[in-house]
Amino acid sequence: MTLERWIPLLGWLKGYRAETLARDGLAAVIVTLMLVPQALAYALLAGLPPEVGLYASMLPLVLYALLGTSAILAVGPVAVASLMTASALAGVAEPGSAEYVGAALVLAALSGLMLVGMGVLRLGFLANFLSHPVISGFVTASGLLIAASQLGHILGIEASGHNLLEMATSLFEQRDTLNGVTLVMGLGVWAYLLLSRRYLKSGLIRLGLTNAVAGLLTRAAPVSAVIVTTLLAWGLNLGERGVALVGEVPGGLPALAMPSLESDLWSTLLPAAVLISLVGFVESVSVAQTLAAKRRQRIDPNQELIALGMANLGAGVSGGAPVSGGFSRSVVNFEAGAVTPLAGALTALGIGVAALTLTEPLAFLPRATLAATIIVAVSTLIDLPAIKRTCAYSRADGVAMLATLLLTLFHGVEGGILAGVALSLGLHLYRTSQPHSAVVGRVPGTEHFRNVRRHEVETDERLSILRVDESLYFANARYLEDTVMALVARQPGISHVVLACQAVNLIDASALESLEAINSRLRDAGVTLHLAEVKGPVMDRLEQTDFRHELTGQVFLSTYEAWSALHEGSQPAHGGSVAATGFDP
Amino acid sequence: MTLERWIPLLGWLKGYRAETLARDGLAAVIVTLMLVPQALAYALLAGLPPEVGLYASMLPLVLYALLGTSAILAVGPVAVASLMTASALAGVAEPGSAEYVGAALVLAALSGLMLVGMGVLRLGFLANFLSHPVISGFVTASGLLIAASQLGHILGIEASGHNLLEMATSLFEQRDTLNGVTLVMGLGVWAYLLLSRRYLKSGLIRLGLTNAVAGLLTRAAPVSAVIVTTLLAWGLNLGERGVALVGEVPGGLPALAMPSLESDLWSTLLPAAVLISLVGFVESVSVAQTLAAKRRQRIDPNQELIALGMANLGAGVSGGAPVSGGFSRSVVNFEAGAVTPLAGALTALGIGVAALTLTEPLAFLPRATLAATIIVAVSTLIDLPAIKRTCAYSRADGVAMLATLLLTLFHGVEGGILAGVALSLGLHLYRTSQPHSAVVGRVPGTEHFRNVRRHEVETDERLSILRVDESLYFANARYLEDTVMALVARQPGISHVVLACQAVNLIDASALESLEAINSRLRDAGVTLHLAEVKGPVMDRLEQTDFRHELTGQVFLSTYEAWSALHEGSQPAHGGSVAATGFDP
């Protein structure tokens, strides 16, 4: 039972049948067809040799199939992780060099260790640091950056850069190297992909195919573009006419090897590995949950951390780059009818076959074709209306989203996402730094107390009752100090302050220090501090502290009890506003 | 009225009288006597020439007197800020060099700009990032580090280092340079200060002095040690016997000059300036609030940001290092009877007189005397029992405190405080990442609903009502998704989920996305999502979103209304647990 929790494979393998194998196998074939060009393209996007993409699509998929809780999630190289990899490795080594590839393996292994560690320690909540607006702004910006980075390949220009400005400058400076043949082919593939996305499915259905089959064939349109342009490049010898091709891809399976253990490299890559892990995890879980829900299945986020982590560790020891769950391939996997994680393992088998047999023809694949494929694929990541929607719903969230988006576009991926996280946290602290609280008075003739600003209630100028409506912790503790001291400074005749704590679920050490400060400052000012309606668990903790003994006043069970004791006791003559209402008990 | 808010001086100066001047003047004389040696000592602690301490005690004090809201706070060089300054400048230039002094001015100006900016933008809440346990652990560690850094001066050894290990290693390596005369003098002053702290006050009272006068004289004990040891050093020519003296201090007032505007230096010092500003602000406000409360006065934290910021800007343009409000000098100022901020301005005048007349004798002041003074002064910062107290009260807070303390001691001040802040935030997110929520059922025969785990209530296997007990925002939004999906996976016959939102004050954009995800996933699973008891302001915002239109179910005013509609409508035969209770309406 416990072993099955750690290795979900043991659960689903027991009931495995031949017909399930047929469905998983079909899904694997379709996903493999889609994955071969994507694996090459995302490796090139990350500045890595194309075979790294194939290597990242073998062992990691098998490990995820063994450990993952999602039957559908298609793990492997993905666009955003590749962009982040390129950015992380930019300062470390020359793209394409052996050190660069070595650093990519370290990045994968480091991401894997982070994810497994977070899973074992059940730290999945750390992904909460990435709020939806930050992720959304970041993914949109990444999509735009990736599309911009591929423009050069379509134009036949060798461009570079890690933000929009650098890319635009580089494109402009190298404009003389534009290659007409490449441009025609790139635009042709782009147009074909756009048109097939819009019209192919309905056309196929009109030809008599079922909806499902037509949908899958449409998704496989890039494969036909890959085949046709590869044949063209080979037949017309386009490589000699200046068209950039993928070039020699070493055939065969990757060798297993430990990544470099150089500690300097590890510590340099650590921040990037944290971001890649968290972004990959958040995106994977979101895809997996959405697809699992369609079949009323559940995924376990902490187990997903371990499975994705092991997949990345696998990439690190088998020549691959960081991997994560891909959105489009997972959807295809789902639509093609994958039933168990075995579909993923079979996909790995398919990629292995491709690596053993297809590398020679793939050398003739034009890079412009891959660029057009990537541009069309990442266009689904770009969600500009979400900006307007988020800004309209909440200005604070809109600011965090826009800041992430703009910084990612014009500064770089790491700065962008970190600024977004810092801003989200800052805005959250700001929102919670002023806890709801209200000075309350007694509803005449009852035991109820209500906000003095909103209701006609009895008050007493020698007594102030402050109802605290939230848990007290470091972000709002100082505001409470300010609020109470302001109350006392405003009401010179005051001699009792009661904090009514019915909504306080927690008082952390900072808030305890603030209560101690409030107590001693009030004592210095000749005012007594009382508490009322303190919840059981909160009171249990307070009982063990010095504060409980130093508290100048009492702890009342109810606000009414506090009112009766302090109001009657201190003011037997029924003066002030109370006498005026005539409702004193 | 508005002008008075920005320049509080205009308020208190109107009613100023001769007798107030006498009281402020007396306080200023006593604080000046205390400040002269402290100013020299803290400048040396920061690795700066002694006169920088004097310069930091003139213009900054005048500016604070003009703008501050505390009548008592004694601004100037303080121990913790000096330690942080030394740490920030360590990598920038050689201690004592002109570049080092220049960088200190930049640090002061940068801190000043940060504080003024935060004040104008009313960003004082950012200080909430520093929780009490983090500040407390950091201040204790700083006290220990400062004391350790002064041991070398007492032993006559030239030691250095920015953490305990480095300091211990340096002391050990230089042990041969120990100077006996310095050691005797250092230990002598130390013992005198400790003994005077314990016995002088009661002795003076026994001699017939009043409590207040005896207290002030006791606080001035370091002054007598300074005078006696300076005379000894001068008379016995101790400088030639290897006793380190303060040495030549340029007399006169500081020249006004812009600090360096080199952008590299500014960006290097920015992180340190942020930390110095925040720590200084938090400590100053805490001292000022404690002392203000004793006279039932109030300080305005946002105006304090501006006043402390202008004081630091003043330090930056008049040759001074970063300043902040000092605890011990503020207490003396209070006890000596300071009534208005003019006491601070008069202290600046006193320091100016000292800079014009006392620099020659001060050159003979032994550094061992200053070291003993510092050690005794910072011993009040060290609060080791607080560690035990905090750990006993809350393990999470204890962990944050210990991590800050240990990292500050053994790694460095900046790493220590940043780790503490990160840990506090992480622990806070962890605590709030799982919002209180409960599946509720109907209390038979009533319109009340209670937790199914704690009460005997009616439930319906086709309907699940989840009461959400907290506001929904990015840190807990994903947990809600998990909770709802787990609920549905557990209860196969379910066809309605109701979220009862009576405790939800806020739904941020992340939580809105989560609600949308929950809605569409439930729809895919054939389950309808309803809301109940949504508060007015929350509903107003939801009304403008797509979610409102995509919601598969209804928004009910009350949980009971939801129960009646869904329970009756879906199950006219009264099957299941409801029929068993026999209380169906």
CA-based gyration radius of chain A: 31 Å
Separation of the first and last Cα atoms of chain A:
64 Å
* β-strand amount of chain A: 5-15%
Largest interface, with Cβ-Cβ < 8 Å?
A-B, 70 and 71 residues
Give the class of chain A from helix and strand content and strand pairing: mainly alpha
Shape by Cα distribution of chain A = elongated
**Looking across the biggest beta sheet of chain A, what order are the strands in?**
4-3-5-6-7-8
> Helical content of chain A, roughly?
55-70%
How confident overall, as mean pLDDT of chain A? Answer: 87
The number of distinct helices of chain A, counting runs of at least 4 residues, comes to: 27
Determine the oligomeric state from the structure. homodimer
Which stretches of chain A are poorly predicted, pLDDT < 50 over at least 5 residues?
569-585
Keywords (chains A, B): Membrane, Transmembrane, Transmembrane helix
Protein name (chains A, B): Sodium-independent anion transporter
Membrane topology (chains A, B): Multi-pass membrane protein
Transmembrane segments (chains A, B): 26-49, 61-80, 100-121, 133-157, 177-195, 216-236, 269-293, 336-356, 368-387, 399-427
Topology of helices and strands:
The structure is a homodimer of 585-residue chains.
Chain A: H1 2-6, H2 9-14, H3 18-45, H4 50-55, H5 59-67, E1 74-76, H6 79-89, H7 98-120, H8 132-155, H9 164-173, H10 180-206, H11 211-219, H12 221-235, H13 263-294, H14 301-317, E2 324-326, H15 327-335, H16 342-357, H17 359-362, H18 367-378, H19 385-393, H20 395-410, H21 413-432, E3 437-442, E4 449-451, E5 463-468, H22 474-490, E6 496-500, H23 509-524, E7 528-532, H24 536-543, H25 546-550, E8 555-556, H26 559-570, H27 576-581
Parallel strand pairs in A: 5-6, 6-7, 7-8
Antiparallel strand pairs in A: 1-2, 3-4, 3-5
Helix pairs in contact in A: 3-15, 3-16, 3-18, 5-14, 5-16, 6-13, 7-13, 7-14, 8-9, 8-18, 8-20, 8-21, 10-11, 10-12, 10-18, 13-15, 19-20, 20-21, 22-23
